[in-house]
Structures are given as structure tokens and as C-alpha cells.
Amino acid sequence: MSSSGSSHPNLNQQVTEKLTRTNYVLWRAQIVPQLRGADVFGYADGTTSEPPRLLVSKDKDRKESSAPNPLHPIWVREDQQVLGYLLNNLSKEVLVQVTAITTSHALWAALAGMFSSQSLSRVNNIRTALINTQKGTQSVATFFAHMRGLADELAAAGKPLQDDELVSYILHGLDMDYQPLVSALDARITPVSIDELFSMMSNFDQCVALF
Prior knowledge:
By secondary structure, the protein is mainly alpha-helical. The chain has two domains: 1-115, no CATH class; 133-211, no CATH class. It has nine helices and two strands, in the order ααββααααααα. It has a two-stranded antiparallel ribbon.
């Protein structure tokens, strides 16, 4: 939103997932691009600060006088539009906790405070799941889909994995039957990509099935 008060229809779009007690990371990942795309994220993060209500000036005799700042009502109007957009994308269970909040930055900060510890806990839980997941009797495709899904959740939380990290987690989840493949990978000079590893494991399974 600009100082001219022009409308921004992009902010009329609701996100797919309203904020609940358990999906803050995914909700924030949807909301931030909407606000940035409409050039109003500054209202939420506080960088577009509230201008003074009054402009103070001095005449030639240095006598002070004040007049309403024309930018202030524009800021209020646009901030309330952002606040309304955020409130419209909260579930009822979250909305009832923030009904007294009157500015978009105060709401944004309150939500971050409510859910940031939960987000950190979620990241730790995902990393634990990556460490503990075993392929077992799953197909290669199912195992990879699960591991990629966990990696995607980390990325959505702002903690993306490098490919070599995900490869390490995948190899850690293999049992001793895959030891020949793991040994071959250890002997490689160049690191294996995720797609290469998928193909190698699929081929390995096919060869084992023939015997």
C-alpha cells in the first residue's frame, strides 16, 4: 500500500491454511509473500512506523503551532487494512486470543511470541525424525518421499537442508543390506546427488530381487 492510499486487491486473497495452534511456520510462509507482494510487510514487521499525528512548526517569531499530519490518517487506514487481512487469516481458536490488539505490528509480534517456541520445537522434532527414520521394508520411493517431505518442512521453517545433509540422513536410515552401496559411495570422489542416490538405491533393490 502506498501513501496515496491506493487499493491492493492482492490482500483480499485468503491463504490456503488459516493460522491454528499447530501450523505457524506454514502459515507464516504463506502470509509473508502476500504482504511483500502488496508492499505492506513493513506494517507487520514495524519498519513502516506510525508518523506523528501532528506537525509542529514555528513562525518567524519562533512561536510554535501544530496542524494535523496528513500522512497519519493514511498510515492508520493502511495499517488497519493489513490488520484486517491478518485477522481474516486466523482460525477462531487463535483469533479469540488477540481480539484486543489494534495494530498490525502488535499482532505480528504477538503471534511470533505465541508460536516461536513452538516453531523451534517443531524444527527439533523434524531433525529428530530425520535421524531416527529407517527405510526398513519401505520401497525406495516411499522412503525418499518421506525424507524429502521432512526436508521440505525444514525449508518452510527457514532451516533448509543442503543436499549432502539429506543424503547423510538417508544413508543413516539404511540397514546392513545396503552396506555394499554405502561402501561404494564412500569411495566416490564426487558427492552423490539426491536423484543419483535414488537411482542407485532403486537399481540396488532390483539387483537384490533377482537373487
